[in-house]
């Protein structure tokens, strides 16, 4: 096996997978060497178990979070001419999904505390064209979607939550996504529940949204009596062919029951970082009392972002500068996105944030090493 390039890597998911080798191999065997009739059953099972795990009625597996966001917006009826209020400090997938629907992003600033949408600023951005709000649970931190729900209902808006990084996080005692019309979770590697490749799921408890999602994911084909296309073909929409791959579903089915223990370990690592960084000048995130985040990584604010980043990497700690620069500053956006001139907090955070490794396989020694490097650098 190739030696680990970092002393403290972002993830050692391969060790977790190795510890589940027998179960994963058995699940994959049944697909690759089975008679194909059972192929879809595994995806159906995963979708049902995932929906139950996050307290939703429906989960529709898709190839990636990027596709999931696009289809969730489309299934909610977002189209050309519509405005969607979202943040500027997310992955390009978030803004791209809005634009792929033909809609327009209106960017809102974020909170200094947990880096999520500043809900107090949303009302001022609502126009007659606003159709939806797209909050992002950045780094695994729940956006205050319960507060947004009241605002959305008062203005007849939909909420599509980008929970790509937040599998395992809770808010107000419920899994994230509970207050949205649809939410998207990603299973790409390095996410809190990573598969062995790309994958994602859109969850909803709205029957009509789920039906449109399934239609779009599966060619626009009406499902047969068994829930799968059977017999002759009957298309009622021009859809896509982007279901969650069954091999990923098989791996994720084995991993899903372990999510609570992994989330707890992520939270414990975050606490250790928080305690270790007290009084250092590095600012750690703070959360609403109802918010129970998970941690894809632990993102702290450092006054000397560039030099700390390099020192940590040179010392073998795989830190990352996620979403720096923010999405709206990338060359793809040749014209400024609406609202991008009023993102003082977003702009400031982009010059400060450093994402420290969090992964259930990291040891206390890994965390101590990372903290020692930071203390020495400061
Ligand atoms: C906040 C956020 N949303 C959406 C995505 C897209 O997910 P995927 O990589 O599964 O397409 C990502 C990917 O990192 C992300 O960070």
What's the arrangement of secondary structure elements?
Blueprint: H1 13-19, H2 21-32, H3 39-53, E1 58-62, H4 65-75, E2 83-87, H5 92-100, E3 104-108, E4 130-134, H6 145-155, E5 158-162, E6 170-171, E7 174-175, E8 182-186, E9 200-204, H7 207-217, H8 246-255, H9 259-277, E10 291-292, E11 297-301, H10 305-314, H11 344-350, E12 353-357, H12 364-377
Parallel strand pairs: 2-3, 2-4, 4-5, 5-8
Antiparallel strand pairs: 1-9, 6-7, 6-10, 8-9, 11-12
Helix pairs in contact: 2-8, 3-8, 4-5, 4-7, 9-12
The structure holds pyridoxal-5'-phosphate.
Task: Give a nutshell description of this structure.
This protein has 378 residues and is α/β, with parallel strands linked by helices. Helix content is 36%, strand content 13%.
Principal-axis shape equals globular
Radius of gyration: 21 Å
Structure annotation, total helices: 12
Number of domains: 2
User: Which whole number gives the mean pLDDT?
Assistant: 95
- Strand fraction equals 5-15%
- C-alpha end-to-end distance: 35 Å
CATH architecture of the largest domain: 3-Layer(aba) Sandwich
* CATH overall fold name of the largest domain: Aspartate Aminotransferase, domain 2
Named once each, the bound ligands are: pyridoxal-5'-phosphate
String of helices and strands:
HHHEHEHEEHEEEEEHHHEEHHEH
Low-confidence sequence ranges: none
What do we call the CATH homologous superfamily of the largest domain? Answer: Type I PLP-dependent aspartate aminotransferase-like (Major domain)
């Amino acid at each position: 096996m190739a030696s680990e390039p970092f002393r403290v890597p972002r993830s050692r998911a391969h060790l977790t997978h190795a510890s589940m080798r027998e179960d994963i191999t058995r699940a994959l065997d049944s697909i690759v060497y089975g008679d194909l009739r059972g192929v879809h059953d595994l995806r159906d099972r995963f979708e049902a178990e995932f929906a139950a795990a996050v307290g939703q009625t429906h989960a529709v597996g898709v190839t990636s979070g990027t596709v999931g966001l696009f289809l969730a917006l489309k299934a909610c009826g977002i189209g050309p001419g519509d405005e969607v209020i979202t943040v500027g400090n997310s992955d390009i997938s978030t803004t791209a999904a809005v634009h792929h629907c033909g809609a327009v992003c209106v960017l809102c600033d974020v909170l200094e505390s947990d880096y999520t949408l500043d809900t107090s600023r949303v009302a001022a951005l609502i126009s007659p064209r606003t159709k939806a709000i797209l909050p992002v649970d950045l780094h695994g931190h729940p956006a205050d979607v319960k507060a947004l729900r009241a605002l959305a209902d008062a203005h007849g808006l939909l909420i599509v939550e980008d929970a790509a990084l937040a599998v395992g996080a809770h808010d107000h005692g419920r899994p994230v996504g509970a207050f949205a019309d649809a939410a998207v979770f990603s299973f790409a590697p390095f996410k809190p529940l990573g598969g062995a490749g790309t994958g994602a799921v859109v969850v909803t408890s709205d029957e009509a949204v789920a039906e449109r999602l399934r239609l779009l994911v599966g060619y626009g084909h009406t499902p047969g009596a068994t829930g799968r296309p059977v017999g002759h073909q009957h298309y009622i929409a021009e859809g896509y062919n982007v279901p969650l791959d069954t091999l990923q579903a098989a791996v994720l089915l084995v991993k899903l029951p372990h999510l609570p223990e992994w989330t707890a370990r992520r939270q414990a690592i975050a606490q250790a970082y928080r305690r270790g960084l007290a009084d250092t000048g590095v600012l750690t995130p703070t959360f609403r009392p109802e918010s129970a985040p998970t941690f894809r990584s632990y993102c702290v604010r450092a006054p000397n972002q560039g030099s700390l980043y390099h020192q940590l990497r040179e010392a073998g700690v795989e830190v990352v500068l996620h979403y720096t620069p923010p999405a709206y500053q990338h060359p793809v956006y040749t014209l400024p996105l609406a609202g991008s001139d009023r993102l003082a907090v977003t702009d400031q955070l982009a010059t400060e944030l450093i994402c420290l490794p969090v992964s259930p396989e990291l040891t206390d020694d890994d965390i101590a090493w990372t903290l020692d490097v930071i203390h020495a650098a400061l």
